Amino acid sequence: MKQRIITAVVAAALFLPIVYYSGLPLLLLTYFLATIGLYELYKMKNLNIFSGHGLLSVLFLWALLFPEKYMNVLDTFYYSKTELCIVFILLLLAFTVITKNRFTFEDVSFSILSALYVGLGFYFFFETRVDGGLVYILYSLFMIWATDSGAYFIGKALGKRKLWPEISPNKTVEGSIGGVVCAVIVGVLFVLFTDIKGSIIGITIVLSVFGQIGDLVESAFKRHFNVKDSGNILPGHGGILDRFDSLLFVWPLLHFFHLW
User: Fold this and answer.
1) pLDDT tens digits for range 154-177
2) Which end of the chain is least crowded, N or C, by CB within 10 Å?
3) Where are the domains of the chain?
């Protein structure tokens, strides 16, 4: 627990100032976090990201992450973001021939879905900060931290009924409900003390639930590939996906609610 707290404090001290400043530093951080997330998924499946197909997957991810505000750069070359992504998908498929099927159709599918899973979540992280402002990023962070903490402590104290034992044996129904309640408290505080707009209480419930689903999705990945953590870049916490799994589901949904 001590190591987890130290890592969390250090990570927050590095992460939050960049989120506050925004701009190019935040974009570079977004690309860095997403790339590490893709690397972790590749490692789970025992695929080498430092390879031809790995490079194509990273480039596909980077194309997905390309922000709306810089789209005029692509317009200069008469290409759209969608066209770039299609090119990388076709190249990944072509790699099955180049490698004589050592890199299989299943591997291509895994690579594309992994890039989409990580890329879309982090893309909307940056877009939310740029379009919605700092308050919505802080809301999403504190709401998910409250969900995780509430689910852990309330589940430990009151949990009896298993939520989804085949995926995550330690999670309980009581803990899940406790996490939603704690998230709603955070939502109420943001309504009272910020200018955040929208039916935030109902939205908080939806986001808290989907954040927990995002956590379970990553747990399902780890159970399928028989690994404890997605990585070890964050001592006591695991990898980037272990820390951002819930937020990868929350940030797109938060953007889709059109709160700003």
Assistant:
1) 998 998 899 988 888 889 999 999
2) N
3) 2-256
